Amino acid sequence: MSVLAVIIITGLVRLGKGYTDQFENAFDTTPNANGGGSITIAFYAGFFAYGGWNSLNFLTEEMKDPHRNLPLAIIISLPIVTGVYVMTNVAYFSVMTPQEVLLSKAVAVTFGYKVLGSAAFLIPVGVAWSVFGTINGGFLLGSRLNFVAARDGHLPTLLSMIHVRRNTPIPSLCLSCMLAICYLFINNIEQLLTYFSFVTWGSTAVTISGLLKLRWTKPDLERPLRMNILLIISFLLVCVGLVIMGVVAAPLETTIGICFTLTGIPVYFIVAVKWKNIPKSFKNLIKKVTYFLQKLLLVVKPDEKFCH
Predict the structure, then answer these.
(1) How far is CA 51 from the centre of its chain?
(2) CB within 8 A of 115, min separation 6: which ones?
(3) Fewer Cβ within 10 Å of end Cβ, the chain: N or C?
């Protein structure tokens, strides 16, 4: 946050000195500026940058008084993050041209070299700390998601276990680590964002549709957090629009994302629905592997830990 403060203050000073040339006709050189698909891909990257608020929804069990603190945290954090990010980008364009921003591999570092001189090394250090914090939050979210899915029977039981002393879901963290390593083999960050965002917004649209159905078919269910239905419908329409425009803008990437998602359907129906009579030898193999990994990682189920 301190590095962002330095960038924003520097940008405001330069704007005060009249360095506003970059803001004149700033969108004239934007490629495919009138293409709705290109705007959608830009939204994918933007929503990823601003998407930290969504992580809180996966951590409600870890929060104190989530009925009050979850909406409060989102309401407070969103305007702050939005203001900081917008002012940071304004600061960038007070120093760099749009072409320089597009060609730069690290915009903040390029900004630092242009205006901070010998102190420019502070920018990459700050960026590294920021990335470390982001990764920390991402692993907390990903491991929690796998942990709960395994606890509810949707993933192997091992992923629902926690360390006997540290109370952390070590197996789930290891799975998140292995997935992160796999993502490194995709050398195009824009393609990776498109894969991720398309599947994310598609899954979100399906989830919201299910919630709306429950709102109409089972109106008496207990709902800890009840939102205005117009807000939910509006959000669903935005998700559907992002999915449709994503298909138009990047058909190859979205097709790959759809294929990855659909591979889970036959596996689920074969293993969880159709395969009722699992061979005893296969069950024993799964148990042996689970016990071995339990001993290796020192993990147990949460209920077993507290029982002992």
Answers:
(1) 6
(2) 10, 14, 95
(3) C
| Predicted pLDDT at 292 | 92
Give residue-wise pLDDT tens across range 63-110: 788 778 888 888 888 888 888 888 988 888 888 888 888 788 778 888
Rounded distance between C-alpha atoms, residue 168 and residue 161, angstroms = 8
| Bridge partner list, 299 | 163
Q: Please tell me the distance from the alpha carbon of residue 189 to that of residue 253, in angstroms, as a whole number.
A: 12
Between CA 115 and CA 91 the distance in angstroms is 11
Angle at 100 between CA 97 and CA 106, to 5 degrees: 125
- The SS3 assignment for 269 reads helix
**DSSP-assigned letters across all residues of 208-250:** HHHHHHHHHH-TTS--SS---HHHHHHHHHHHHHHHHHHHHH-
Instruction: Give burial (CB, 10 Å; 0-12/13-18/19+) of 172.
Output: buried
Give the pLDDT score at 211. 86
pLDDT digits 0-9 by tens, 21-68: 777 776 665 555 445 556 777 777 777 777 777 777 777 777 788 778
Q: How far is CA 178 from CA 21, 75, 174, 181, in A?
A: 46, 34, 6, 5
pLDDT tier at 274, thresholds 50, 70, 90: low
How many whole angstroms separate alpha carbon 190 and alpha carbon 283? 42
> What CA–CA distance (Å, rounded) separates 242 from 245?
5
Q: What angle do CA 132, 111, 137 make, to 5 degrees?
A: 15
